Amino acid sequence: MTTRLYSHPIYLEHLTPPGHPERPDRLRAIARVLEDEAFAALDRVEAPKGDEATILYAHPESHVQKVRAAIPQEGIRAIDADTVASPKSWVAALTAIGAANAAVDDVFSGKADNVFVASRPPGHHAEKTTAMGFCLFNNAAIAARYAQKKHGAERVAIVDWDVHHGNGTQDIFWDDPSVLYCSTHQMPLYPGTGAKSETGAGNIVNAPLAPQTGSDIFREAMRSRVFSAIDDFAPDLIIISAGFDAHHRDPLAEINLTEDDFDWATGELMDRATRHSGNRLVSLLEGGYDLEGLSFSVAAHVKRLMKG
Ligand SMILES: [Zn+2]
Predict the structure, then answer these.
(1) Of 194, 226, 227, 261, which sits 20 to 30 A from 78 (CA to CA)?
(2) What parts of the sequence cross the membrane (predicted)?
């Protein structure tokens, strides 16, 4: 397998206030574990700046203007209680989109079998018209639509195993049966959406997990709800909204997964990508707030992507 890794120093310049869980040190911790020689074969590429026009694949122009207007000249400005912008946030967000779209290009051109994007700010809480939950633009949603417009993908599956429900991705694809959105997440928990009864146009599959859920129930939920939906859908591309805050060490939630669970889920999704999608799999970092839980989980995830 050829596995490509996108990152960029600009991601460290999207600043959040002291004590904020979504902080630049998350990417520093990931970079440190990926220095290990086990990752020598990774194809490391500096993320390109994204094309602003592709934001409109998932958000209206009014949202783009609203985010642009929220970027401060200096310091850190609050957009809501937990979502902020700093002077470099615009370029960082655009470079997160650029990496997600480039990853799609890579798996369709055959430059890579799969790609992991280590970027911030994350994206899955960003709704069509609302930046929230540390997210400004929905990277996964933009990349899915980019695959459809640029590479003729008919069906794209987004699998979101971040411990929070990806309300933004659900909102964007609510009435779009060409994109399957599957999410495992703790419930109740922020942002409050993600009940089983939320099914959109039949393309939304939510698998809520009770607090204290561990490996067995998580795996059963993936098997019975997520993998079966993917097999029925037969996507041309699988995108993972890869948050690692369902790790037992994470301070923001109470799900008790380990690195082994992320390794397992990655392998299972790679099997589906082989079966349905010509191996095409793109993984985008979302949450994960305990530096050890995050970095060890990313290591297990990327190791599995490289191994096949
Ligand atoms: Zn999360």
Answers:
(1) 194
(2) none
